[in-house]
Amino acid sequence: MIQAAGTGKLVVITGPSGVGKGTLVRSLLNRHPDIYLSVSMTTRSPRPGEIDGQDYFFVTPEKFQELIAGEQLLEWAQFAGNYYGTPRQTVEDKVQQGTLVLLEIELEGARQIRASFPQAMRLFILPPSMSELERRLRDRQSESPEAITRRLNRAIIEIAAAHEFDVQIINDDFDRALTEVESVLFPNLPELSLPS
Ligand code: 5GP
């Protein structure tokens, strides 16, 4: 059985919107089905193809406030005009059971996790450049021009905080970035060959 790094089993992946975190995480889950990816709550609207309960739990602002008041979120933050948060119970149960739990969350949430789960391993994914990040955000055509501007402004703040994380990985070459993430999570894993 391969053990994750550190004493904790909680791994946080953060990085600016458009950096490719989602794609990295999906590949990671395909290759390591034992990893549990936490499904977040959000007040943002579903993008085409997103499924409630799978990509996110899509909730109303009122419901989100109830979750905060009931202390049912392990962390939460406002991001580009919407609320996002991690359901507390599921994550705590999975960690308790010894499962490697992955949170794909933004900077404010990652800071809260550092306070509540200091043993968590925290990774920051960087773009090769701001212009490349902007190109990726525009290419995915999922946001309005205003939303893209908000996300780019937020990206500048997030990137400035990358040094707060245990590990920084530049997503210029996808396969290399994925191998680097794996070598952090599974330091004892022999290098695997990636499908071309
Ligand atoms: P998106 O709207 O593109 O799906 O996500 C926007 C940002 O919110 C991304 O940086 C994503 O990592 C972050 N995010 C997703 N779920 C959560 C969460 O539960 N908590 C926090 N703090 N951020 C989240």
From TrEMBL:
Binding site for ATP: G15, P16, S17, G18, V19, G20, K21, G22
Originating species: Roseofilum acuticapitatum BLCC-M154
E.C. numbers: 2.7.4.8
Family in the record: Belongs to the guanylate kinase family.
Record's protein name: Guanylate kinase
Stored PANTHER family: GUANYLATE KINASE (PTHR23117:SF13), GUANYLATE KINASE-RELATED (PTHR23117)
Compartment(s) where it occurs, according to its Swiss-Prot or TrEMBL record: Cytoplasm
HAMAP family: Guanylate_kinase
